[in-house]
Design a protein that fits this description.
Elements (H helix, E strand, L loop, with lengths): L1 H11 L6 H11 L5 H21 L3 H20 L12 H16 L7
Helix pairs in contact: 1-2, 1-3, 2-3, 3-4, 4-5
Protein name: Oxidoreductase
Pfam families: DoxX
Membrane topology: Multi-pass membrane protein
């Protein structure tokens, strides 16, 4: 569900987020263009993937959407800082990536929709 929250921050400015324009501006500042379009795509992947993943619905698709955003954040933001999250590295993103891949491979479980 937290992935959906991150998507809502980007898409709608909820939960202290910056919305499409603010997130798009930040993306452009790190040379990801067009910023607003990329903010929309990333926000949509996180929002939809997070909701589907939390519900256990279309788990493989949900995991792919979330995994794409985690790989993207590692490649574009955190990778250059090394592994450890204390240095703004990719440690946490890697753990989340492993978790979504693990659930995609094993299935959502008995309480899934």
């Amino acid at each position: 569900m937290l992935f959906a929250g991150h998507g809502a921050q980007k898409l709608f400015g909820w939960f202290g987020g910056y919305g499409l324009k603010g997130t798009g501006g930040w993306l452009e500042s790190i040379n990801i263009k067009p910023g607003v379009l990329m903010a929309f795509v990333v926000g949509l992947f996180e929002f939809a993937g997070g909701l589907l993943f939390a519900a256990g619905l279309w788990t493989t698709l949900a995991a792919i959407l979330v995994a794409i955003t985690m790989i993207g954040s590692i490649v574009t933001v955190h990778g250059k800082n090394g592994l450890w999250s204390t240095q703004n590295g990719y440690e946490y993103n890697l753990v989340l990536l492993a978790a979504v891949i693990g659930v995609a491979l094993t299935g959502p479980g008995a309480i899934a929709v």
